[in-house]
Design goal:
By secondary structure, the chain is α+β, with helices and mostly antiparallel strands. It has a domain at about 5-125: Aminopeptidase. About 25% of the residues lie in helices and about 35% in strands. The protein has 4 helices and 8 strands; from the N terminus they run ββααβββαβαββ. It has helices at about 20-25, 45-60, 105-120, 135-145; strands at about 5, 10-15, 65-70, 75-85, 90-95, 125-130, 150-155, 165-175. An 8-stranded mixed sheet has the order 1-2-3-4-5-6-8-7, sandwiched between helices. β3 and β4 form a beta hairpin. The longest helix has 15 residues, at about 45-60. The radius of gyration is 15 Å and the shape is globular.
């Protein structure tokens, strides 16, 4: 399965093992991954294992998730994904962007393109996203997508440091 999505400034294409160096730049950076559950990656081998998994997922006839590379000015600078539930009618949105490219509207542009993808290609009924309550940039992005706060009573525990914090869940029903 292969999808490529173009926006005014971006190309979203399947993330794969060839992106190892650029992915590890942000996935291994502690500041860049402050609010990411499973990051930072401590070794390049962890990043390689993740990318091998993603590469194999794209090879499936019907992937369970779609992990897109965000390409800006010819450089892979982040990733955005949609993970499907077992019924394949709800997708969970996730993203990460190299901190050098924060506050440029890139994540919003990529997320709007993925919103269009789940609506027109995957035909999902609902899109959800989660974030640490302290991550106002992610909360703002979800709101810009038209998502509304569904639950603010959840918690998340970061596996790398065992910290438990409040988690926000946003959703968008698609009819």
């Amino acid at each position: 399965m292969f999808y490529e999505i173009k926006t005014d400034r971006l190309i979203l294409r399947p993330l794969d093992i060839s992106d190892l160096a650029t992915v590890h730049t942000y996935a291994g950076d502690k500041e860049n991954t402050t609010y990411m559950l499973w990051l930072p990656n401590d070794t390049i081998e962890e990043t390689k294992q993740f990318l091998n998994s993603v590469t194999n997922e794209w090879k499936k006839a019907v992937p369970n998730y779609y992990e897109f590379a965000i390409v800006f000015e010819g450089l892979q600078i982040g990733a955005i994904s949609v993970t499907l539930n077992d019924s394949r009618n709800i997708g969970e949105l996730g993203w990460i962007l190299n901190k050098r490219y924060w506050k440029k509207g890139i994540a919003v542009e990529a997320a709007l393109a993925i919103k269009d993808f789940v609506l027109n290609v995957l035909k999902l009924q609902k899109l959800v996203a989660h974030c640490d309550y302290r991550n106002t940039a992610s909360s703002n992005l979800m709101q810009k997508l038209g998502m509304t706060l569904e639950d603010d009573t959840g918690t998340r525990t970061y596996p790398k440091n065992n910290e438990t914090v409040q988690e926000l869940t946003y959703s968008l029903s698609i009819h």
